[in-house]
Amino acid sequence: MSAQRLNRRDFLQTSALLGGGLVLALGLPGCAKPPAPAAADATLNAWLRIGADDSITVICDRSEMGQGVYTALPMLLAEELEVPLQAIRVVAAPVGEEYVSPGNGGQVTGTSNSIQESWEKLRLAGAQARTMLITAAARQWEVEIAECRAENGAVVNARGQRMTYGQLATAAARLPVPKDVPLKPASAFRIVGRTLPRLDTPAKVDGSAEFGIDVKLPGMLFAALAQSPVLGGRVREVDTSAAERLPGVRRILTTDGGVIVVADHYWQALKAREALKISWLAGANGTLDNAVIAALLTKAATNPGLSARADGDADLVLRSPGARVHRAVYTLPLLAHATMEPMNCTADVRADGCDLYVGTQVQKVAQTTAAAAAGLPPDKVRVFTTLLGGGFGRRLDVDFIPAAVLASKAVGAPVKVIWTREDDTTHDTYRPPALEEVAAAFDSAGKLAAWKLHIVSPSITARMFPPVTGVDDSVIEYAVGYPYDVPNVAVNYTRQEVGVDVGYMRSVSHAINCFVIESFMDELAAAAHRDPLEFRLSLLAKKPRHARVLQAVAKRAGWGSPPAGRFQGLALMSGYDTYIAQIAEISVTGGALEVHRIFCALDCGQMVNPGIVAAQVEGGIVFGLSAALWGDITIERGIVQQSNFNTYRVLRHNEMPDIDIEILASDAAPGGIGEPAVPPVAPAICNAIFTATGTRLRALPISAHKGLRV
Amino acid sequence: MTVLTVNERTLEIDAAPDTPLLWVLRDHLGMTGTKFGCGKGLCGACTVHVNGAPMRSCALPLEALAGKSVTTIEGLSRDRSHPVQRAWIAIDVPQCGYCQSGQIMSAAALLRENRAPTDADIDAAMAGNLCRCGTYARIRAAIHRAADLQRAGPA
């Protein structure tokens, strides 16, 4: 063949950090010069290298999965370093202790805390480096430090002398790191707080951005993985004879995770996978289906659960004679993450080490997982983080890594394993299902006197980061912070596993619990013949940030006076130190639901890049819409019934409602923004459906309800 | 051997006739800008132009492409100067970016046929291109912007 290699401006490049680590340079054309020779780069600190050619490289310790960290984190550093943002080139951090997230307890991109945890850290890193560069210049010029200042990538002084950072970097890197460097007040920010263009956009409009699936290594082979159709099943026996005879097939390996077919090209691997004759052992899940899961959760709900929050004595009030008690049971389905880039991993195992190229949210876990599969110590595994074609929490899991390592080790060449969409949908680590019992009581004066929520759901954390003693914090989000002023509040949790590997998914239990809480608050407002907005506000006198976003969204949406034929529903949520409210404007015509508009107001504290904040809110709402309207993974005989986008439906262009976002000015510390826009969508729509039809939806997705078409 | 033209280069491809164009581009030619999303023509991530028309390359066997001319995201312009690319940059459309090659190729095909698309035209042309990050509103705005840029001519 004439496999004529077309020019690609940006290919995988590695360059040694002076500190001995390695970083993967994902070329970002338009914002990046070609990487300078490593020896010419001076390492100022764990997040910054400066080249003799004046190149500025920011080492980003959070994975870029669309949320904008490859722009927002460099903005923080650039603010204090006094360099223009567009001068910065971004590379992914290697595994390193200095890159551990304190809040996540590991080198993890998750819980929407990248900005919160970088807010001071990266400004300080920039300020320290700037101070070192100024000091180096002052010494060279033999002038006082106070006479010198940093300006646009150079140090200057009043005598008209000027040296660029590139000229100073080597000397600066030898200086001690200064402590107690003051940071600019917000009033002096020139970069932070502005909607600056994303650094990764140019590479994402010309096909040059490198995702994990795009990694190319010399001599690389491709692999497909046959996994048990029944979740958790294993290979009983496999007949590989027909597959082995197919063109391009190099090796077929039977492993604990399934049968790996390695071939010269991916299409050959897929064809050979089809030719395998595999007999599977179903294991414990052979009889699992939705009815079994529902029965498990229902039975577990008879337990009292562990207390996650107890103000006063809600049970006592709920049992008291004369209390007007309302009760309901809500259920939520399993959901798939459905990132646009299916799971994949490339490994290059050699006798002395392993290089791993992967879109991951957990570099250290990826390293130890690959090391175990390779039979190497972890420090022999280098992790090169690519861009992620969507994360949403799916890439907090590492189940797609071992096959690449095992295959590479077996064939002695780099191997890229790619899951098909069907593999991805049927072997996700799904958002857990939940059954929630909720009860509330009004006192004789009509005031809400008690609220109790009992959450029954599997524990993701117990699977991924065991052990969990007591209540899993990732199950009780928003519920434990129930904002409404009720004297007796109880939140209990009963853990019930359902045989399915469950995973963290964008907004995790905030979305599950917000659906229940905000739907039931509407039920209570209706029971009390109160307006849903006024009812909530009456219970938020002590919660000004919650009340403010509710009032803002109500004003924006024209609460109470929707256009003719349309109906409104609202929902509130707080989480990730962000406060957010939404109003859905819908119509139901002859049973056909249409979501016309979603209004949103939020207070996420100080912002680094308001344009990226808005994009995350837009995207969170779309993610919430897909889940609310259609998201539903169902299981029969242990096998996931959805396989591709025809059976696991997500929102399309033509189904997109208008979205109206108001970001409220705030001087508060930064909140997270990647996740909080997801949860209010489902309850806002369901509350609007109640207004429109009088039907209360206590189960998702909406499309599962007879009588409603979506 | 199948002979086809990719981004104005005529190439001989030695691959099984049923190999989808997507994998010919990605594995045989090393052109990874065209993305694998679903393999069934359901998500649009693999959209390319075949003789000018938007097609899902994951569902196009090589044998059907003999003598045809294929344009991929890498060939849309040399320097991100296509009006759609300029509009995408101006509006900062991408988030994760994975679906955007396909979105851009669908949008470019739309704007070649329809120089002033309405929202309904955009819905119809773009309904087959999924985005899980939820960039749809920005894509709509960017297509309108690209139409303006196209009318104005090269930058």
Describe this protein's structure.
The complex is a heterodimer of chains A (about 700) and B (about 160). Chain A contains 18 helices and 29 strands. Chain A is an alpha+beta fold and about 700 residues long. Chain A has a 7-stranded mixed sheet with strand order 12-13-10-20-17-18-19, sandwiched between helices. A 5-stranded mixed sheet of chain A has the order 15-23-22-21-16, with helices on both faces. In chain A, helix 14 packs parallel to helix 18 (about 680-695) and helix 17 packs across helix 18. The longest helix of chain A is centred in the first third of the chain and has 21 residues, at about 120-140. Mean pLDDT of chain A is about 95; it is low at about 1-35. By secondary structure, chain B is an alpha+beta fold. In chain B, strand 1 and strand 2 form a beta hairpin. In chain B, helix 3 (about 85-90) crosses helix 6 (about 135-150) and helix 4 crosses helix 5. Chain B is globular, with a radius of gyration of 15 Å. Chains A and B meet through helix 5, helix 7 and helix 17 of A and strand 2, helix 1, helix 2, helix 3 and helix 4 of B.
Give start-end ranges of low-pLDDT stretches of chain A: 1-37
Helix content of chain A: 25-40%
Radius of gyration of chain A: 27 Å
CATH topology name of the largest domain in chain A: Aldehyde Oxidoreductase, domain 4
Quickly count the domains of chain A.
Answer: 3
> Biggest β-sheet of chain B: count, sense, barrel?
5 strands, mixed
In CATH terms, what is the architecture of the largest domain in chain B?
Answer: Roll
From the spread of the alpha carbons, the general shape of chain A counts as: globular
The CATH topology of the largest domain in chain B is given as: Ubiquitin-like (UB roll)
**Structural class, judged by helices and strands of chain A?**
alpha+beta
* Number of contiguous helices of chain B: 6
